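Pipeline run #58 for the internal structure catalog. This entry was flagged by the ingest filter as a single-chain record with no existing model, so it goes straight to prediction. Upstream metadata was stripped on purpose; only the residue string is passed forward. Reviewer on rotation: M.T. Logging verbosity set to normal.
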Amino acid sequence: MLFATTSLAARIERAEARLVSDSARAAERRRPGAGSFAIELAGGVAAFAGAGSPLNKVAGLGFAGALDPRELEAVERAYAAHETPVQVELACLATPEIGAFLTRRGYALVNFENVLGRPLPFEPAAAAAGISVSECSDGDLAGWLDVAIAGFASPDLEGVPSHESFPREALERTMADMSQASGFVRYLARREGQVAGAASMRLFDGIAQLCGAATLPEHRRRGVQGTLLAARLAAATRAGCDVAVVTTQPGSKSQENVQKRGFELLYTRATLVKDS
């Protein structure tokens, strides 16, 4: 059993904050002058990567002491300058006083997400017949984006729905920005030689973050998702990681699928939002 100590949660949240900040900095390099930022805040980061980006959020908060109200005010002004709400994703294992402070300040609880994990190393079983997985080169980026975005366009119909939706253009920018983060790897799955699925993973501080996977409709229920997951876990094992994590909506099909493959619920993040 993998037990979620506060120290493990802090490692996972640091990895999440670093991925968000690296991606926001990549956005600034790719689109200079667009106003992207990554501001450190109470052990986490407040990031803005462009209008409508899924990366516009505060991540990793609450594992490095109290939240300074003056620093939060500066972050709120930075988001207000872009007419963007402040969205905080707060782990239930973070400093409890932060949640109470945010609610008194007018932040509303709008959703939850679950963080699941499993220990590594991982010994993969044989891949499903006819399916192969390979790292995605820059030359295959357009194809990878098409499949990955198709997954976002077909959300889980089970469990708690997400409170967010994003236009394709914003998703394309976000995925391209994330791809520039150190340790980020893209994967393509092929079935009988045809592109069938896509996935990604970020390696940081011994944590393998599984950043999403998608299968094209005509290739579903053929073992593509399981093969993509096994390939990433095997790669994380070879890289020396000791934990793999994935984030899902509570009660979703995605959560059910990863739990069938050895992932356990570690903790929940609350999503709190304050309009700018």
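catalog note: The chain has two domains: 6-114, 119-266.
catalog note: Residues 6-114 form one domain.
status: ready for reviewer M.T.
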